Amino acid sequence: MSVAMKPEARRAPAPHASKKLNLIAGSWSEGQGAVTRKLLNPADTTEVVAEVREAALNQVDAACEAAHAAFLRWRSTPVLDRVQVLFKFKQLLEAHYLELAELLVRENGKLLSEAKGDVRRGFDVVDFACGIATHLQGRTLPDVSSNVDTYMIREAVGVVAGIPPFNFPAMIPLWMMPIAVACGNAFVLKPAEKAPLTGTRLAELFTQAGLPEGVVSVVQGGKEVSERLIAHPHVRAVSFVGSSAVAESVYKLAAQHGKRVQALGGAKNHLIVLPDADLERSIPALIGSCYGCAGQRCLAGSVVIAVGDQKRQDAVRDAFVAAARKLVPGDGLEEGATLPPVIGIEHKAKVEQWIERGVRDGARLILDGRNPKTPSHPHGCFVGATVFDGVTSEMPVAQEEVFGPVVNFMRAKDADEAIDISNRTRFGNSASLFTQDGAAVRRFRERIQCGMLGVNLGVPAPMAMFSFGGWKGSFFGDLHAYGPDAVDFYTKKKVVTERWFGAEAPKDGWV
Ligand code: NAD
């Protein structure tokens, strides 16, 4: 099927044709590191979107030094003055909404509608941060003893390092940066090396909103730059989002250096369809969850479990496969495309290897997305919608994160068996139940071992006033991302117990 350009989808200007992508002490500079990466458009790898040279390690150190100096002033800037910058940032974000979404499509590949969602969900966190004065308030209890009052206050932590993944280049930096900064911290962003431009542009807009120099910094790079940042003595807290293996190593490294850390990892999310589910309404939610962003979401459904007798299970499978077949791989900026490319050539090869692995292990490939027809984009990183039937829990494809448009179809006789299948994986990010039965929802809620649950929806991302995070191998740390947990994460608490002597105070107390 041919695809035409959406009217609004003009090519985004290349704001990062400039090679100065590191923001250190308020100035943009080119990286001086040994590695330069060519960033290719995932929909057309003949297009070089940018060339990004890593920061040298002494540039990382310089960013941390400048951030620390900025923090010492910023933390005592009155909260209402800090919030004014957040309000202005929000205005700039709205003014640059489409530009940000288009830039995001070019570096990440997702559909323009998905990119708009990515940007918009990040804006919601900025709204939350605008109200930080309320969230920062402490607690007071007078008269805890005779003439003695106790109160808790919050203070900023210091320099915070933010290390996001490639798959939400706007939303995830915005989970971190606005709340950290509103709380009085300085923030050093190291964008994902596979999609660094949108986060960099967000930092640029944030500084344009009036942030003093050094409050937000940007350093480009991968593992080496991350590790330098995590270990730097001025960095007091690390916000990380990425794959579980890296999340765990970041958690350990940060802890070893005495840092506060939240490390969100990967996922294997189960979508359980009970016999009484409204199938007509559920199928679009299942498809959106599994194939949105080409399955590259930490909340993407990757296992559909149909509960019931064989007839019902087959009906769910057939309806799901019929809808998956209709997805049209294509450039995210083009009309008619409903399945975007995966992030890059290597990732496409990895997803295809998982498909081969599933076949080798005995799963039945009932929809094969390898080599989809994309005549207008012969050089795109496309994988079509893929479905395995006959998957068992023992198969690696049932246990590991593929992070692509590959879905396992599984079967269970009842809801408990389906919940057991989900609980058997090492991940615990999210799970969803499709049903009309409230009692079944209660049982699901109690038994499932995940941090985020959906009922009759496939992507149960908490809104900005809640917090986001999983359980088990999907999360390393204590406090989740954004919302109230983020306020706790980005502040330290002090409890003051004070006594003021009135004329009536006893003179023989010794406490
Ligand atoms: P990744 O783990 O490869 O990289 C994430 C970030 O870590 C990048 O900025 C990268 O430069 C940096 N990095 C890589 N190796 C490092 C190391 N050894 N030490 C320190 N930093 C290192 O992940 P990715 O491929 O960019 O993103 C996809 C993964 O992120 C998936 O597993 C997905 O499930 C996960 N994810 C999780 C959530 C969540 O909320 N739990 C959200 C989005 C994505």
Description:
The structure is a single chain. By secondary structure, this protein is an alpha/beta fold. It has 2 domains: 22-29 and 58-265 and 474-495, Aldehyde Dehydrogenase, Chain A, domain 1; 269-455, Aldehyde Dehydrogenase, Chain A, domain 2, CATH 3.40.309.10. The chain has 16 helices and 24 strands. It has a 7-stranded mixed beta sheet with strand order 16-17-18-14-13-20-21, sandwiched between helices. Helix 9 links the parallel strand 11 (235-241) and strand 12 (260-264). The longest helix has 19 residues, at 112-130. The radius of gyration is 24 Å and the shape is globular. The protein starts with a strand and ends in a 12-residue tail after the last strand. Mean pLDDT is 95; it is low at 1-15. Bound molecules: nicotinamide-adenine-dinucleotide. Nicotinamide-adenine-dinucleotide (NAD) binds at residues 163-168, 192-194, 222-223, 226-227, 241-243, 246, 249-250, 264-267, 298, 401, 403, 429, 470, 474. The site of nicotinamide-adenine-dinucleotide (NAD) has 29 residues, from helix 8 and helix 9.
